[in-house]
Amino acid sequence: MIQRVEGRIGMVVQNRMEKRQQREEMILDAAGKLISEVGFFELKMSDIARACDISVGTLYGHFASKEDLLIGLAVMAGAKRAEKFDIARNHDGSAIEKYIIANLLDLGFSIDHPQLFEAEYLALAPSVWKRATPARHQAQLDQINAITTMFQTFLTEGEDELGIAPDMTSRSRNLNLGSWGLGYGINVLVLSEITDRHYGQELRKNAVSILCDGLADLMIGAGWQVDDARAKVRALAATYVDAPGFDQ
What we know:
It is a single chain. 31% of the residues are buried. This protein has helices spanning 2-38, 45-52, 56-62, 66-89, 95-112, 114-123, 126-129, 134-157, 159-162, 170-191, 193-199, 202-205, 207-222, 229-240. It has 14 helices and no strands. Helix 1 (2-38) crosses helix 6, helix 4 packs parallel to helix 8 and helix 10 (170-191) packs antiparallel against helix 13 (207-222). It is an all-alpha fold and 248 residues long.
């Protein structure tokens, strides 16, 4: 009898958790759509509650503030981004090729989902994460760490290909940081009005192509020895990234 009661209680708790998770996903989806329409700074919690047909109190029961909501959206975006990286992991090629593909997929995701990248970008600002609850901020840090570790693992496995000695692993860490900065910077510039004023639509239309060349140059500088590195990186982009400009 006791086991049956405990079983029922467990099912009730599980159902509540599932419903809470489903409601949270609904809230984040609605928030993402509203941010794409009005921007984060014009976003109102009451508008999100209305879009989800829930009370403002229920909304705050999930997200204690707009900052919490933004980080929740960034974590959701990161999870969707991470799914793309399975393509790199499953590539039938060297660890360095997997690393390059992951960088290209990262930019491709941002181009395809600019509102999600904007959420990730804004969530990194101290004015946001310092106001978020510790649990939300920790979830953000854990996710960024997992993705960074994946990139670093590719480079560590490819150190022989780069000619990096076991006692010089800082070189691969610096390469990881440099390529991250390159890709992230292009992500930001693609969304920037300032970029349009200086370059017209050139960067926006050719972002993948520009990343290909920049990434190839970084890899060469790190010791990657391959015939026509730029052509090699562009060939990987042509295979794995569906975005304009990579074949120009």
